[in-house]
Amino acid sequence: MKRVLSIILGGGAGTRLYPLTKYRAKPAVSLAGKYRLIDIPVSNCINSEILKIYVLTQFNSASLNRHLTRAYNFSQFSDGFVEVLAAQQTPENPNWFQGTADAVRKYLWLFDSWDVDEFLILSGDHLYRMDYRLFVERHRQTGADITLSVVPIGYKTASSFGLMKIDGSGRIVDFSEKPKGDALEAMKVDTTTLGLTAEQAQEKPFIASMGIYVFKKQVLVDLLRRLADQTDFGKEIIPASSRDYNVQAYLFDGYWEDIGTIEAFFNSNIALTRQPEPPFSFYDEQAPIYTRSRYLPPSKLQDCQVTQSIIGEGCILKSCQVHNSVIGLRQRVNADCVIEDSLLMGADYYEPLSERSQHMTRGKVSMGIGEGSTIKRAIVDKNARIGRNVKILNKEDIQEAEREDLGFYIRSGIVVVLKNALIPDGMII
Predict the structure, then answer these.
(1) Which pairing describes strands 332-333 and 321-323: parallel, antiparallel, or unpaired?
(2) pLDDT band at residue 96, thresholds of 50, 70 and 90?
(3) What is the mean pLDDT of the segment spanning 115-141?
(4) Residues 6+ apart with CB under 8 A from 197
C-alpha cells in the first residue's frame, strides 16, 4: 500500500449539518462523545497501511487542522503523514473549490508530483469500517482504471441515491441519479455477481455509490485536465468516463452511514448505545478508531441512574438520570436532571471551581447542565450553559425552527443547542 496516496474530501460548507458546522468544518464534528468524523477515514487508512493522507477542506478548517496535527504524528522514520490542504486562491485559479473533482484538480500539481500508482478518494463524513487493501487489490486484479465502492440497497432507499448498472464482469455500464418509477426498475442488477447470496440479491437489487473511489494515477490526472469544466466526481467525471475507461464496482456489505444531515448525525450517535450490538462498534481491536489523546481523568458518577448510554472521559454526573444518550468529554450534569435520547457533546475545557462558585452565588449560569433540567431528543453542542430547571422537550413537535438569538435551532424535530450558548434558568424549548 506504499504506492497508494489517500485524498479525503472535507466537504463543503456543511449547510445540512448547520448549526453544528457554524464554528467547525464538517469532518471536525464530534462523534460518540470522543471522536471526530475525520477520525473514521483516517483510521481506516492507517489500519489499511495507507499512510500518505491529505485532507481537502475550505470551510472553518482551524479546529480540523488543530485536531489532525495533535492526533496523528507518524514516526520520522516513515513517510507517513496526515496533512490538511485548505482551499486557496491563486492567479491561475481565483475561485474556491467548486465540487469534489474541482477540489482535487486545484491541488493536482501536488498530487501528480507523488511517485504512486493509485489515488484513493474518500469522504470525510461517513461512518463505516473498511479495509481499503481489499478495495485496492480488487482494483488491480480487474485491471480497472477506476473502481467505485458500492453498497447494495433495496427499494425503500433506492430513489435517494445515484444508482449504477453492471455487466457480468462487474464493470459499470450505466448511471442514473435518483431514479423513480420505470427508470428505477430499469436500474435493477443481479448483485450475486458481486458476492451476495440469491436471497440477499432479491432483497437488495440495486447498487449505490458510497462516494469512495480508486483511480489509476494517470487516469485521474488525464480526466481532470481533459474535463476541465466538470467539477463533481459522482455526477460528472465518472459517468463521463465509463464509456472510454474500465470502471469497476467493488461491493461493500458492512455498515455504512452517510452523516450528512442533523437527523442522520443524531440517529447514528444514538444507535451506538444499542444493546447488545450497535450497528457500528468502536471495540474492534484489529481495526481501532484513533483520535487525539487527551489524558483526561476517569468520569465520576455520584448516585446516578444510567441505562444504555455512553459516558465520555472526564465527566462529572451528580444524582441524575441518563437514558439512551451519549455524554461527551468533560460534561457536567447536576442533581435532579433527566437526560433522555440526547447527545451532549461536552466541553473543551473545565470551568475553574472559583468561577463556578461565583456563578452559584450571583445567579449566573455555569457551564454544563443546571440542576433540575430535563433534556429529551436534543443535541447540546460544546461549552453550552444550560440553566436550572430548563426543559428542552419540543412538546409541540416543531420540525424546523431557527432561534439563534435564543441559542438553539430545531432540525427534523431535534433541538440543537448552539456551541457556547447560554440557556437561562427556567426556559422551556
Answers:
(1) unpaired
(2) low
(3) 95
(4) none
Element (H, E) at 150: strand 146-153
Tell me 194's DSSP state: G
Distance CA(224)–CA(111), nearest Å, equals 12
pTM: 0.91
Query: How far, in whole angstroms, is CA 248 from its chain's centroid?
Result: 25
Residues contacting residue 317 through CB under 8 Å, at least 6 positions apart: 299, 300, 301, 302, 304, 306, 311, 327, 331, 332, 333
pLDDT tens per residue, range 143-198: 999 999 999 888 888 888 888 888 878 888 888 878 888 888 888 888 787 777 88
b/e for 25-50, b at 16 or more Cβ within 10 A? bbbbbbbbbbbbbbbbbbbbbbbbeb
Q: What is the largest CA-CA distance in the chain?
A: 74
Residue where the block lists cell 409541540: 396
DSSP string, 350-376: PPPHHHHHHHHHHTPPPSEE-TT-EEE
Q: How far apart are CA 215 and CA 121, in angstroms?
A: 8
Helix (H, G, I), strand (E, B) or coil at 390: coil
DSSP 405: G
| Order of all β-strands in the sheet with 422-423 | 300-302, 316-318, 332-333, 368-369, 385-386, 422-423
Following CA atoms 126, 129, 131, 134 in sequence, which dihedral angle do they give, to the nearest 10 degrees? -70
